Amino acid sequence: MKRFRxxxxxxxxxxxxxxILTPIEMALAxxxxxxxxxxxxxxxxxxxxxxxxxxxxxxxxQLDRIDVYAGNGGGSWLxxxxxxxxxxxxxxTGGTRVGDWDWEPVINTGTLVPGETYKIVVETExxxxxxxxTNGYANGVAYLGxxxxxxxxDFWFRTYGTPASSPTPTxxxxxxxxxxxxxxxxxxxxxxxxxxxxxxxxxxxxxxEDVSDRDKNEPKVKLTWEASxxxxxxxxxxxxxxxADADFVLVAEINKDTKEYTDAKIEFDKKYTYMVRAYKxxxxxxxxxxxxxxxxxxxxxxxxxxYLSFAGPIWKQWYFWTLxxxxxxxxxxxxxYIIGRIRTKKTQRITAESIKS
Length: 357
What we know:
Helices cover 18% and strands 36% of the residues. It starts with a helix and ends with a helix. The protein has three domains: 1-29 and 303-357; 30-164, PHR domain (Jelly Rolls, Sandwich); 204-293, Sandwich (Immunoglobulin-like), CATH 2.60.40. It has helices at 2-28, 318-356, and strands spanning 31-36, 40-46, 51-56, 62-71, 76-84, 89-98, 102-107, 110-111, 118-124, 128-134, 142-144, 153-155, 157-162, 204-210, 221-226, 235-242, 249-255, 260-263, 272-280, 283-284, 291-293. By secondary structure, the chain is α+β, with helices and mostly antiparallel strands. Strands 1, 2, 4, 7, 8, 10, 12 and 13 form an eight-stranded antiparallel sheet that branches. Strands 6-5-9-3-11 form a five-stranded antiparallel sheet, with no helix packed on it. Helix 1 runs antiparallel to helix 2. It has two helices and 21 strands. 29% of the residues are buried.
């Protein structure tokens, strides 16, 4: 009877943990942002290592995942990436295996700029199909391999995100007599437009990556770019600005053989925009493409246990601890059962020996 009471206590504890964690998980779940699930007109056959793409415009700043409706993959690996169209920057990646027709999570977490156009690019290991509809997503364009984009058709997709929380209002600073530099004024710290020399080619393909060390509470953004085509430059100047700033400020000068820079003089949960210029003496090239990034103190974790598409450490997932509790309960039951059987057989053997003697 004591063993049964112990078993009931362990199982009850496991069930209680599950009941507590599940509503928390549901409360933290991401919300549907954009989707297209229009009437299907065809299933597009996608050959091995072919790419198809679909554009969309998010309203949320934080992406949690993107699903596409695909099938007939026979276990093929489906890899996905999300590209910011204006800069060509890859902001998120992911992947899953495709079996029968179902919603497949192909892209994990990423930081987005609401209102900009993004492209979902999917590549398959083996042939599979992706459902194509009509009268679909208003802002979308479908790309069929190397074919021309089709504005009147859209692949079935869903994007999930986290609405940006409203910032807490802060009191206005007291006026000061210090004048702020105007854009392009040439004052130290600004991005002077009068020093532009169009014969100096701009660096290209600027990208930003959040490389923050959250264990040490150190926000960091790593910038990389491709070299200027002008060979006799002296180096590169990196400029940045915060979301509320009108002017870029100079944050670093880099020698011409280096094409990356890590900015550690930033804050978590603040939006920063960067651009880079090549320079020679007091002249600069025009600006590279601009990139915007918000280093997150606690990045959102993809909650998609069914496909094991975790975007963060598994031990930080609520479902992980639910499974741990249930697994411990099952192990406890098995151990209790084995010990009980051993004791029962031992008691029976002792009883039998007593009867014989």
